[in-house]
Amino acid sequence: MAHSHEAHHHERPRDLTRNQELVLTTLNNAEAPLSAYDILDKLRDDGLRAPLQVYRALEKLIEHGLAHRLESLNAFVCCADANCHGRASGTAAFAICSGCGRVDEFADPEVTARLAAWAGETGFALERTTIELRGRCAECRKAA
Amino acid sequence: MAHSHEAHHHERPRDLTRNQELVLTTLNNAEAPLSAYDILDKLRDDGLRAPLQVYRALEKLIEHGLAHRLESLNAFVCCADANCHGRASGTAAFAICSGCGRVDEFADPEVTARLAAWAGETGFALERTTIELRGRCAECRKAA
DNA sequence: TCGATAGCGTAATGTCATAACATATCGCCT
DNA sequence: AGGCGATATGTTATGACATTACGCTATCGA
């Protein structure tokens, strides 16, 4: 039952293909970021056999704002706010804990604004922004 | 107390080893970021033969604040402000042009402050921050 | 019915990074 | 001088991440 029309102007969790669904579910069930090969390993029993199948699914999920790539980790997470986070709250930032590996996604409008301002002044046509924080989360600090 | 002679309170281009010197010079001469293997290729004639020699040199250069790693590119640039940029102006941000490949390094204290504030509120012990902007620089936009 | 678009599956390859091991060099302390 | 620790070195092999190239299938609308 595919819609012939785009009813919403923001990205909805539209119909995903089987592979996309599998990958997204895998990411959702994970506590920490997964590499493409991690995902592949978890999905062997579901018939996935080659990295490309995972990368292709990830590409679409990211396009739709359902997943993110963490550049400093070469790994992927599902979007914190499953439905509509993507473009809504500006650029997402990620705090990655070196202890437990968990990732906290947040957005700071002021940061977004400052970076946009820099781009404006400089004449830089900003397309995409990566913000990643590394450190230890509160939990892990207590546990130490 | 490692050295008794810290003449300057900011990092000086202290004595580099031969390999470190070679790698730094290569980065300085480059217009755009270089991957470790790019660097290796340029230094074959100088006797470098294995990736590890380059990675080890890069590691030290980055420690000393003379070079940066661009996570979203898996590549390296020399620090824009050769002598003193490192810790001085807070976290560095990088604008990477998808046209010419050139990288513009800058620092925005307000951005640094906001991220530090988030970390403070959250109890996240911030160790390292990555900020990378992708887009087209003013030059390349004109050229189009 | 045709062609365009999008997805799927597989093999091969390309690119980035590190482990493990062996050796060398320097400064420093005794 | 001898010995120790810290640091750098060179080499081989391997691991980890990502893409190119090719061919097939399904769907949709002109």
User: Which pair of chains forms the biggest interface, and how many residues does each contribute?
Assistant: A-B, 33 and 33 residues
Q: Might you state the CATH topology name of chain A?
A: Arc Repressor Mutant, subunit A
What shape does the CA trace of chain A take? globular
Helix content of chain A: 25-40%
**What's the total number of strands of chain A?**
5
Q: What string, H for helix and E for strand, traces the elements of chain A in order? A: HHHEEHEEHEH
CATH C-level class of chain A? Mainly Alpha
Mean pLDDT of chain A: 88
Numbering strands along the chain, what is their spatial order in the largest sheet of chain A?
4-3-5
> Which oligomeric state applies?
homodimer
CATH homologous superfamily grouping of chain A? Winged helix-like DNA-binding domain superfamily/Winged helix DNA-binding domain
| Distance, first to last CA of chain A | 52 Å
Structural class of the helices, strands and pairings of chain A?
alpha+beta
Q: Give me the Rg of chain A, rounded.
A: 17 Å
* Sheet with most strands of chain A: 3 strands, mixed
| Proportion of residues in β-strands of chain A | 15-25%
Give the uncertain stretches of chain A in residue-range form.
Answer: 1-13
Q: What attributes does this structure have?
A:
homodimer; 144 residues; alpha+beta; Arc Repressor Mutant, subunit A; three-stranded mixed sheet; two-stranded antiparallel sheet; 5 strands; 39% helix; globular; disordered N terminus; DNA-binding
Write up this protein.
The structure is a homodimer of 144-residue chains. Chain A is an alpha+beta fold. Chain A has a single domain (18-143), classed as Arc Repressor Mutant, subunit A (Orthogonal Bundle). In chain A, 39% of the residues lie in helices and 20% in strands. Chain A has six helices and five strands; from the N terminus they run αααββαββαβα. The first copy, chain A, has helices at 18-29, 36-42, 51-63, 85-88, 109-122, 138-143; strands at 67-70, 75-78, 93-97, 103-106, 125-136. A three-stranded mixed beta sheet of chain A has the order 4-3-5. In chain A, strands 1-2 form a two-stranded antiparallel ribbon. In chain A, α1 crosses α3 (51-63) and α2 crosses α3. The first copy, chain A, is globular. The relative contact order of chain A is 0.14. The model of chain A is unreliable at 1-13 (pLDDT under 50). The A-B interface holds A 71-72, 93, 95, 97-98, 104, 106, 108, 110-111, 114-115, 118-119, 122-138, 141 and B 71-72, 93, 95, 97-98, 104, 106, 108, 110-111, 114-115, 118-119, 122-138, 141. β5 (125-136) of chain A pairs antiparallel with β5 of chain B. The first copy, chain A, binds a DNA duplex (30 and 30 nucleotides) through α3.
